[in-house]
């Protein structure tokens, strides 16, 4: 059921402490941790503690938690000191867009030039 932890979800396991992660921030509704395969010097994932398969379904069901994810993304950028130089927040939705874990999450990327369009 949406919103409930999923036994086969890697990110739900991180939230529950079953899988280790390098956590950089945690709130009542979110967890932020370093990506294990970083694409930039700063590459942190911000996830809601509730399970929704993607950002759109999270925002539709729990807009306050979706706002928390975005707020925490900004705080991660400030903590990592990339907010002054610029950073990117990315939500991949669907396998064709590169989503590999189907639990809503934001990628916070910074610390190097980020080209446009991304590719």
UniProtKB/TrEMBL annotation:
Stored Gene3D superfamilies: HIT-like (3.30.428.10)
Annotated motif Histidine triad motif, positions: 103-107
Domain of life: Bacteria
Pfam families recorded: HIT
GO MF terms, alphabetically ordered: catalytic activity
Residue ranges occupied by any HIT domain in the UniProt entry: 10-119
InterPro entries from the UniProt entry: Histidine_triad_HIT (IPR001310), HIT-like (IPR011146), HIT-like_sf (IPR036265)
Active site: 105 (tele-amp-histidine intermediate)
Protein name: Histidine triad nucleotide-binding protein
């Amino acid at each position: 059921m949406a919103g409930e932890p999923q036994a086969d979800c890697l990110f739900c396991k991180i939230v529950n402490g079953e899988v280790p992660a390098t956590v950089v921030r945690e709130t009542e509704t979110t967890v932020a941790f370093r990506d294990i395969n970083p694409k930039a010097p700063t590459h942190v994932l911000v996830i809601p503690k509730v399970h929704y398969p993607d950002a759109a379904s999270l925002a539709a069901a729990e807009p306050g938690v979706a706002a928390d994810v975005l707020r925490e993304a900004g705080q991660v950028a400030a903590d990592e000191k990339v907010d002054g130089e610029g950073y990117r927040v990315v939500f991949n939705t669907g396998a064709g867009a590169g989503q590999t874990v189907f639990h809503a999450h934001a990628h916070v990327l910074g610390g190097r030039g980020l080209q446009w369009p991304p590719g």
